[in-house]
Amino acid sequence: MFSIGISFSTPTQAANPDALWQIVSQQCVPNSEKNGDPKPCAMVDRERGFIILKDIVGAAQYLLIPTTRLSGIESRELLQADAPNYWRYAWEQRHRVGDALGRPLESSQVGLEINSASARSQLQLHIHIDCMRADLPQLLSVHRRDPLGKWMPLMLDGHVYSVMRLSGDALQTQDPFKLAAARTAHAATAMGAQSLLLTGGRFENGDEGFYLINMPVNFDKGEHGSAEVLLDHGCAIAK
């Protein structure tokens, strides 16, 4: 129903591309308002405008979904000055992954991810919250000395993407959507061709912070704009 697996299908190919929005608008929010019960969601935050939903894919994968209609990463509302920072809200909910697995996880073991417009199956913005692929923390550690706030080349799986190192308090003032929009002169007009992943990391000086990865669409190079491939819905990293 609302499974969002690793898929390169377009929204028109989904059995019901509005499934997530229907769950949010017709079930979770009304149930929360009328009965104080968020089901089938795990949480409804009406004040800040998002819900948390357990995905049926994986033992510990959750989704953050806005309670307003937003199609996805390309939604222009996300770049407005007063836009909610859904990434900060999602990072606050990362404990749910460890809770579902019965053990706490390091920040580097958890990732937040959003797919490009061409690599998603739903027409409602949603951020995946799940385990990182087991090899990623070590691979990203080579960037622990990168300049803060600067996009740097990231060699990964035979492709060249971009990574930005962020301080531990970055989400208090910075929004990954806006950082991606400023990556190049034309990025803001092509947000639908971007895919983003945010994960934690420990830097050379011992400080904790974040790595933000941008994986744009480039079909000629076999790059489908799905940073979800950097997550592991089986959570091998926790075993």
UniProtKB/TrEMBL annotation:
Enzyme category, top tier: hydrolase
Principal subcellular localisation of the protein: membrane
Keywords attached to this entry: Cell membrane, Hydrolase, Lipid biosynthesis, Lipid metabolism, Membrane, Phospholipid biosynthesis, Phospholipid metabolism, Transmembrane, Transmembrane helix
Cytoplasm found in the keyword field: no
Membrane topology summary: Single-pass membrane protein
Localisation per UniProt entry: Cell membrane
EC numbers, comma separated: 3.6.1.26
Reactions performed catalytically: a CDP-1,2-diacyl-sn-glycerol + H2O = a 1,2-diacyl-sn-glycero-3-phosphate + CMP + 2 H(+)
Keyword Lipid metabolism (UniProt): yes
Pathway linked to the protein: Phospholipid metabolism; CDP-diacylglycerol degradation; phosphatidate from CDP-diacylglycerol: step 1/1; Lipid metabolism
Membrane spanning residue stretches: none
Family: Belongs to the Cdh family.
Protein name listed in UniProt: CDP-diacylglycerol pyrophosphatase
Organism the protein comes from: Herbaspirillum rhizosphaerae
The organism's taxonomic lineage, starting at the top: Bacteria, Pseudomonadati, Pseudomonadota, Betaproteobacteria, Burkholderiales
